[in-house]
Each structure stands twice: as structure tokens, then as C-alpha cells.
């Protein structure tokens, strides 16, 4: 009788919403043992005291980062669900403590054979923004501080599996996309690559549940502040803008600038983006729909809905799915693409596990086939 292999996993920042969803999803993953969980303010507590829905499982207690004994803890994968700026420092420190080959300057020139040169070493999936932007000057501009792990940045792979699957398989450091970029990029990259839409005049109207703002205590996130209301935020200056533009520019082969406005809506989880695009001459809305169907025909987590069916967050809640559809705009030459994901799953923790599966050589869907929850 064969024994299912188990990989030892650590979650840094397990007391946040993304950390909790990592735990929830990994509890049913047949190839994973959660061996370490950290949380600074909740150090010393069982995870069930922080999140009652996770009580009763055989899980380690939360500890502080300074209590982790690298490399004695012997992890195969580390999920870093820490705030930006903190993440880059911690990842650099743990790679140094474990003597990781990623810190070798020579590795920068041999990225294509990275998997062979550092096999057996810990793999890191970062859920923060710290390694998403390839240009560290752009990072400094948008995040208000210099990047402190500049030599690591070129070795990070942008973890959108539907686009970068082969690179993720070889990677030892993956930067998980933000939730807003995930929904936008899945909708737009195939259309830009095919030259069906203009790289100009892309307008993204995005809406997310309150969990996207994190679990820290903020007056703006109190129930009375967010219930029965909706409001835009970070208008014209949201930090996901350069990330979206970076990946769309790669897809289009020309510079892409977007108009992007996020909104906070009074629901716990879920994200919906209504995206307005200009068609290239001779292209129809039907062509866009056909392109998306072809692009995602073999993708396990992206679905193109039937004609006229409008994506909604209830279609994806709690799942690693993204649902898309295309509609005719009443303005000639324009189309509307609608994309829906769960911001905590496909937009964060689920996509992180999808990346982990690829990095470990597992079936990409392992532990991620939960159907959406409704009601």
C-alpha cells in the first residue's frame, strides 16, 4: 500500500484573513502537514482561540517569528502572509538562515535551470506585494520605501499560474498576485495578446469585500462605517495599478496605462470587476468571447459563462474559481468584460496553494476543488 507523501508547510502571519484561509484550505490537502504557524500579536495562542472555526484540528500553536528555529524546523514550503516591507526582510532572513542558493549572486544568470541547482531547498510563496513589481524603483515609488531585497527580486516568479505555469514549476520564490490584479489580468491578458483590444482606454471598475482590507483594527472598517454603504478608495493611486500595468504591458508588447478605481462593498468576501475596453478595428464582441473560451479551455479554475450570463460573486464564494463573460457596450467599438473571484481564495490563499502545488510537482488542483458556497 502506497503512502501519500507529506510536505511540511509553514504559514507566517497565520492570524490574518489570508492566513486563516490558508489553514482552512490546507487542512484538507492530502499532501501537506502544517508544521509551523506564526503570529506576532497572537503568539502563544492556539489557532482555534483566534479563529473558532479552526478549533479542534491537530495544529501547532501560534508562535512569534523570533521563536522560529531556522533551519531546524525543516520546512518544505513557507507561505509568507505578512505585510509588505516586513515580508521582504523576513524572506531574506529565512533564506540566509537556511543557506539557500537563491542568495548566491550567480543564480541570477541561471534562472532557467534554477530547479536543478537548488532542489531540496525550502520554497517560498509570498502573498504580500514585496516581490510582485519587477522594477524596485517602481516599488519604492508606490510603497514609500526602498526595496531591501533587491538581489532577490529578479529571482521571484510572478505567480499567476494560467500565464506563468512553467516558470512557477521551476521557482523557489513566487510572488502571488494581488486580488484586484488577478481578476483583471485573467480577463485582459488573452485579449491583449491576441491584439483584439486597444492598449489604451482600459477602465477597470473594481469592488471588493471588507476582508480585502485586512484584519487589523481600523476605524474605517468598523461595521457602522461599512454596512449599508459603498465607497471608492485610493482613487487614482491604488498600489495595484503598477502591478496590473506591468503584466498588461508584457502581454500587449507596448506600454499600457489603465484607469482603475476600487470600491469597498459591505460583504465579507468576494470581488467583481467591470472592465471597459476599446475593440481593435474589425474585432467583434463575439471574437473576444471566443478568444477567452479558447484561452481557458483547459484551465481548471477559469470559466467563461454562457451567453448573457453575468458573473457574480455568489458564483465563486469560497472557491478558487474565476468566472468571466463579455458584453456589448452601447457605445460603438467598445465592449464590457466582467470578472468575479473570491478575493481570499483565487485572489490570495487559493492561488498561493495552486502555486505551491506546481512548485512541488503535485496536481495543480489538489486541495482546491471545493465548490462555491451558496447561500
Short description:
The protein is α/β, with parallel strands linked by helices. 28% of the residues lie in helices and 18% in strands. It has a seven-stranded mixed β-sheet. The chain has a six-stranded parallel β-sheet with strand order 2-1-3-4-6-5, with helices on one face.
Structure description:
It catalyses: N-acetyl-L-glutamate 5-semialdehyde + phosphate + NADP(+) = N-acetyl-L-glutamyl 5-phosphate + NADPH + H(+). Pathway: Amino-acid biosynthesis; L-arginine biosynthesis; N(2)-acetyl-L-ornithine from L-glutamate: step 3/4. One of its GO terms (biological process) is L-arginine biosynthetic process. With 375 residues, the chain is of the alpha/beta class. The protein folds into 2 domains: 184 residues, Rossmann fold (3-Layer(aba) Sandwich); 164 residues, Dihydrodipicolinate Reductase, domain 2. It contains 11 helices and 13 strands. Strands 8-9-7-10-13-12-11 form a 7-stranded mixed β-sheet. A 6-stranded parallel β-sheet has the order 2-1-3-4-6-5, covered by helices on one side. A hairpin with a 5-residue loop joins strand 12 and strand 13. Helix 1 packs across helix 11 and helix 6 packs parallel to helix 11. The chain is globular, with a radius of gyration of 20 Å. The two termini are 40 Å apart. About 3% of the residues have low confidence.
Q: Tally of extended strands?
A: 13
Query: Remind me, CATH topology of the largest domain?
Result: Rossmann fold
Runs with pLDDT <50, length 5+?
A: 106-118
Order of helices and strands: EHEHEHHEHEHEHEHEHEEHEEEH
Mean pLDDT: 92
Strand order of the largest sheet: 8-9-7-10-13-12-11
Secondary-structure content class = alpha/beta
Q: What is the CATH C-level name of the largest domain? A: Alpha Beta
Major sheet attributes: 7 strands, mixed
Number of helices: 11
What is the CA–CA distance across the termini?
40 Å
Domain count: the total is 2
Secondary structure: helix percent = 25-40%
Could you name the CATH homologous superfamily of the largest domain? Answer: NAD(P)-binding Rossmann-like Domain
Q: What value does the Rg take, in angstroms?
A: 20 Å
Portion in strands: 15-25%
What is the CATH architecture assignment of the largest domain?
3-Layer(aba) Sandwich
Characterize the overall form: globular
Amino acid at each position: 500500500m502506497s503512502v501519500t507523501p507529506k510536505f511540511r508547510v509553514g504559514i507566517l502571519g497565520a492570524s490574518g484573513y489570508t492566513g486563516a484561509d490558508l489553514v482552512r484550505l490546507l487542512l484538507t490537502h492530502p499532501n501537506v502537514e502544517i508544521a509551523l504557524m506564526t503570529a506576532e500579536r497572537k503568539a502563544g495562542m492556539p489557532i482555534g482561540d483566534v479563529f473558532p472555526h479552526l478549533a479542534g484540528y491537530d495544529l501547532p500553536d501560534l508562535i512569534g517569528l523570533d521563536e522560529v528555529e531556522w533551519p531546524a524546523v525543516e520546512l518544505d514550503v513557507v507561505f509568507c502572509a505578512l505585510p509588505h516591507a516586513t515580508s521582504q526582510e523576513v524572506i531574506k532572513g529565512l533564506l540566509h538562515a537556511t543557506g539557500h542558493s537563491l542568495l548566491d549572486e550567480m543564480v541570477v544568470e541561471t534562472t532557467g535551470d534554477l530547479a536543478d541547482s537548488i532542489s531540496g531547498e525550502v520554497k517560498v510563496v509570498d502573498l504580500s506585494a514585496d516581490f510582485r513589481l519587477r522594477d524596485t524603483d517602481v516599488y519604492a515609488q508606490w510603497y514609500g520605501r526602498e526595496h531591501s531585497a533587491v538581489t532577490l527580486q529578479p529571482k521571484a516568479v510572478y505567480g499567476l499560474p494560467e500565464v506563468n505555469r512553467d516558470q512557477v514549476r521551476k521557482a523557489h520564490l513566487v510572488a502571488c498576485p494581488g486580488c484586484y490584479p488577478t481578476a483583471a489580468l485573467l480577463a485582459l491578458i488573452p485579449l491583449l495578446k491576441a491584439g483584439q483590444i486597444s492598449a489604451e482606454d482600459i477602465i477597470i471598475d473594481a469592488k471588493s469585500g471588507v476582508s480585502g482590507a485586512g484584519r487589523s483594527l481600523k476605524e474605517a472598517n468598523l461595521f457602522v462605517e461599512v454596512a449599508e454603504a459603498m465607497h471608492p478608495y485610493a482613487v487614482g493611486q491604488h498600489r495595484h495599478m503598477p502591478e496590473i500595468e506591468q503584466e498588461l504591458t508584457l502581454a500587449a508588447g507596448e506600454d499600457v496605462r489603465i484607469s482603475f478605481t476600487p470600491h469597498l462593498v459591505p460583504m465579507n468576501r468576494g470581488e467583481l470587476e467591470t472592465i471597459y475596453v476599446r475593440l481593435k478595428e474589425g474585432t467583434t464582441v463575439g471574437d473576444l468571447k471566443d478568444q477567452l473560451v479558447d484561452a481557458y479551455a483547459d484551465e481548471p479554475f477559469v470559466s467563461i459563462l454562457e451567453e448573457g450570463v453575468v458573473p457574480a460573486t455568489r458564483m465563486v464564494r469560497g472557491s478558487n474559481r474565476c468566472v468571466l463573460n463579455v458584453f456589448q457596450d452601447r457605445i460603438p467599438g467598445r465592449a464590457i468584460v466582467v470578472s468575479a473571484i473570491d478575493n481570499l481564495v483565487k485572489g490570495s490563499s487559493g492561488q498561493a496553494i495552486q502555486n505551491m502545488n506546481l512548485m512541488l510537482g503535485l496536481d495543480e488542483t489538489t486541495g482546491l476543488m471545493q465548490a462555491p458556497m451558496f447561500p
